[in-house]
Write a structure and sequence with these properties.
CATH class of the largest domain in chain B: Mainly Alpha
CATH class of the largest domain in chain A: Alpha Beta
Strand content of chain B: under 5%
Low-confidence stretches of chain A: none
Number of strands of chain B: 0
Shape of chain B: globular
Number of domains of chain A: 2
Strand content of chain A: 35-45%
CATH architecture of the largest domain in chain B: Orthogonal Bundle
CATH topology of the largest domain in chain B: MetI-like fold
CATH topology of the largest domain in chain A: Rossmann fold
Oligomer: heterodimer
Largest interface: A-B, 25 and 17 residues
Number of helices of chain A: 8
Distance between the termini of chain A: 39 Å
Distance between the termini of chain B: 34 Å
Number of strands of chain A: 20
Helix content of chain A: 10-25%
Mean pLDDT of chain A: 93
Radius of gyration of chain A: 24 Å
Low-confidence stretches of chain B: 268-273
Largest sheet of chain A: 6 strands, mixed
Mean pLDDT of chain B: 86
Number of domains of chain B: 2
Order of helices and strands of chain B: HHHHHHHHHHH
CATH architecture of the largest domain in chain A: 3-Layer(aba) Sandwich
Number of helices of chain B: 11
Radius of gyration of chain B: 23 Å
């Protein structure tokens, strides 16, 4: 297991700056997940950590040793690629042991390690198969096995589940969770899937435009998003946003008059000004459906109803625009039904026009 | 019934095209099997057939030695072209070494130069290096002229290969040469086969430069031999076509053996797998 320290890391491709200035520390044995939308620089950051890209500035230290100018070989890392990157002309066994072969390890030791890893990953029956003869899940396991045999101090995974179908992705997520306990490595995992991030991570780092938008434990990011970007990125379906302005301020509380036609009172966590334009954020699962229009803050018409069995997603066309609601599976309105809703202030967030959190 | 009929029509059409295409080859073999009296007969096949022309060319020439000359020149050229072109394509496409792209573009221009236009300067160079009547006098020019085409094919293949494979090799601890040897070469094997066969055909059939560089009978390659049966005042068409048949035979056999790899190589560049 290794520690990782990234100090003022920058990466530019010609005139395009992908990572302007990023600092991050990863503790020994930590499972860190880098999330963010496409193009936010998460894969570039992982490639910089792996030594596959040369940084434009800053330093990378593994276990306190400066590895900025070293190649992947010297960094003691293992990496699982998005496309698996299995060598098509080698069978699974040689793919798994290839790194050790390059390290000129004795054949008996290579065989022992391959046997060990393939037993852990249930690959014993497929060792003679070429990658094209393996299923997506088996290929994924071979790719993980290849990284594991080198017993890396730092395990890097670049969107390893993105090429799998939904059910396989779910089972592989569990596999990785299990694997994590078997592999004595610090792990850095890149994904754009927030379910993977929430379920696997000790700590999530949300990247936006090559900068850290927020870093913290999964539930901290969910409960206390630092800004509108994180609030919208973490949670599925995404948080609803309603525009409005601060009508009055009193005792660190703000009365917010929303353009949708109702008001709410929220406790401020940052300074705000009367008349300031703001955005109210409320997660679909925190919106309450009420019976009558009188008890509701906002009413609308069910435009799309998605019945998932355990949950029902209702997309309501309201004066505040489309509002997504996550209701229990027993709630089954029809398209066109009137829906009356309330947004509990205790579960609502307030952001200024720059996206910074106010409440 | 309808699919069977369409298959028959397609095969018939292909057979007609093939027959049309094969006519010169059949003529070549046929004239090689004729007596002098029948040599200019317009018929495709004449009777009786004779092997005397083949006996003549085998008696007149040390064909074993000449065949060996052709084989040495061609095989060495193929090895050099495949090695140099694949290494350069790897440096250009995978390692992206500084300057390789400019060099690649420059090399491409040599594809447009006909061999006849550079024969004179080449002859001067070859004489200067003392390579007249030497294998090197053919091997190096053939290789130099063949490498750009090989690079074009192999670079296109490597450009189409997933970059993550080369990244994975680096993570697995491969040096640049190990990545080239263990990953890149097996990955472009169909293209390597295609380049090798193509270069084999080009070098085996080359006549112009061989005629200039090789003057001693024991150094001759196969393509020069037919010359002696086609003179200004004397011609022996039967022997001429008999030796042409013998020159073409190894290539035809080679193509039959590797045609699947050749066609795969041709198509793989166009259709990304």
């Amino acid at each position: 297991m290794a520690t990782l320290d990234i100090e003022h890391l920058a990466k530019r491709f010609g005139a395009v700056t992908v990572i302007p200035d990023l600092s991050l520390s990863v503790a020994e044995g930590e499972f860190l997940v880098l999330v963010g939308p496409s193009g936010c620089g998460k894969s570039t950051l992982l490639r910089l950590i792996a030594g596959l890209e040369q940084p434009s500035g800053g330093a990378i230290r593994i276990d306190g040793r400066d590895v900025t100018d070293e190649g992947p070989k010297e960094r003691g890392i293992g990496m699982v690629f998005q496309s698996y990157a299995l060598y098509p002309h080698m069978n699974a066994k040689r793919n798994i042991g290839f790194g050790l072969e390059m390290a000129r390890m004795a054949k008996a030791s290579i065989d022992e390690r391959i046997a060990n890893v393939s037993a852990k990953l249930q690959l014993n029956d497929y060792l003679r198969h070429k990658p094209r003869e393996l299923s997506g899940g088996q290929r994924q396991r071979v790719a993980i096995g290849r990284a594991m045999t080198r017993e890396p101090k730092l395990f890097l995974l670049d969107e390893p589940l993105s090429n799998l179908d939904a059910s396989l992705r779910s089972s592989m997520r569990v596999e990785i969770s299990r694997l994590r306990r078997q592999v004595a490595s610090t792990m850095i995992y890149v994904t754009h899937d927030q379910v993977e991030a929430m379920t696997l991570a000790d700590r999530i780092v949300v990247l936006d435009g090559g900068k850290i938008a927020q870093a913290g434990a999964p539930m901290d990011l969910y409960d206390q998003p630092a800004n509108r970007f994180v609030a919208s990125f973490i949670g599925s379906p995404a948080m609803n946003f309603l525009t409005g302005c601060i009508a009055s301020l009193q005792d660190e509380q703000a009365d917010v008059a929303l353009d949708a036609g109702f008001s709410t009172r929220l406790k401020l966590v940052a300074p705000a000004a009367q008349g300031q334009r703001v955005t109210l954020g409320i997660r679909p699962e925190h919106i309450a459906i009420v019976e009558s229009a009188d008890a509701a803050q906002l009413s609308g018409v069910a435009e799309v109803v998605e019945l998932l069995g355990s949950d029902t997603f209702i997309h309501v066309d309201s004066a505040g625009g489309m509002i997504a609601i996550r209701a229990g599976g027993g709630n089954r309105p029809h398209r066109g039904d009137a829906i009356h809703i309330c947004a509990p202030p205790a579960r609502s967030y307030l952001f200024d026009s720059d996206g910074a959190r106010l409440a | 019934m309808r699919p069977r009929l369409s298959a028959f029509v397609i095969h018939l059409a292909l057979f007609v095209v093939l027959a049309f295409w094969m006519a010169p080859q059949v003529y070549m073999v046929s004239i090689g099997l004729r007596t002098p009296a029948q040599a200019f007969d317009a018929q495709l096949v004449t009777w009786p057939m004779t092997l005397s022309n083949f006996a003549t060319v085998l008696r007149d020439n040390p064909l074993g030695r000449i065949f060996l000359n052709s084989l040495i020149v061609t095989a060495t050229t193929v090895v050099i072209v495949v090695a140099a072109a694949s290494a350069f394509a790897f440096a250009c496409s995978v390692l992206r070494l500084r300057g390789t792209l400019a060099l690649y573009t420059t090399l491409l221009t040599t594809l447009m130069v006909p061999i006849a236009s550079i024969v004179l300067p080449l002859a001067v160079l070859i004489k200067h290096f003392g390579w007249v009547n030497s294998y090197l006098g053919l091997i190096f020019p053939y290789a130099a002229l063949g490498v750009p085409f090989g690079i074009v094919i192999l670079k296109a293949f490597l450009d189409d290969s997933p970059r993550e494979l080369f990244d994975a090799a680096r993570v697995d601890g491969c040096s640049a040469f190990q990545t080239y040897w263990h990953i890149a070469l097996p990955l472009v094997r169909p293209a390597l086969t295609f380049v090798a066969i193509w270069q084999f055909i080009v070098s085996w059939n080359e006549f112009f430069l061989a005629l200039i560089v090789l003057t001693e009978p024991e150094m001759k390659t196969l393509t020069i031999v037919p010359m002696q049966y086609s003179g200004l005042y004397m011609a022996n068409p039967g022997a001429l076509f008999a030796i042409l048949t013998l020159v073409a035979l190894p290539l035809i056999l080679l193509y039959v053996l590797v045609q699947r790899a050749f066609v795969n190589g041709l198509l793989s560049g166009a259709v990304k797998g």
